[in-house]
């Protein structure tokens, strides 16, 4: 079984949010990750009840100067625009 995991570190402790439903290799999935301050949400496909998590500590900012990494995608692959990878608020 494979799953989707998002990890972000805002303070001293990472938020590690793992999908409840398995990810089928070779199939398309819609994955939405939302972060608001220290709180995070992960939606898979048509899930209306997200998996949630928090980064520990008191700071709420996240540096966006570092690259975003999407695991499992080879470096030589160009991510198509229809993947709708957007920025934050």
Structure commentary:
The protein has 89 residues and is mainly beta. It has one domain: Jelly Rolls (Sandwich). Helices cover 0% and strands 29% of the residues. It has a 3-stranded antiparallel β-sheet with strand order 3-4-5, with no helix packed on it. The protein has a two-stranded antiparallel ribbon with strand order 1-2. A hairpin with a 4-residue loop joins strand 1 and strand 2.
Features:
two-stranded antiparallel sheet, three-stranded antiparallel beta sheet, Jelly Rolls, mainly beta, 89 residues, 0% helix
Identify the strand order in the major beta sheet.
3-4-5
- Structural class, by secondary structure, is mainly beta
Task: Tell how many strands the DSSP assignment holds.
Answer: 5
| Low-confidence segments | none
Count of discrete domains: 1
Structure described in brief:
With 89 residues, this protein is mostly beta strands. 0% of the residues lie in helices and 29% in strands.
How do the strands and helices of this protein lay out in sequence?
Layout lengths: L4 E5 L4 E5 L12 E6 L2 E6 L6 E4 L35
Antiparallel strand pairs: 1-2, 3-4, 4-5
């Amino acid at each position: 079984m494979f799953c989707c995991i998002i990890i972000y570190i805002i303070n001293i402790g990472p938020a590690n949010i793992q999908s409840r439903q398995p990810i089928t290799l070779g199939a398309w999935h819609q994955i939405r990750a939302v972060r608001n301050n220290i709180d995070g949400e992960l939606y898979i496909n048509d899930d209306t009840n997200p998996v949630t998590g928090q980064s520990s500590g008191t700071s709420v900012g996240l540096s966006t100067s570092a690259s975003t990494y999407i695991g499992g995608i080879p470096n030589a692959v160009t991510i198509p625009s229809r993947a709708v990878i957007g920025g934050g608020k």
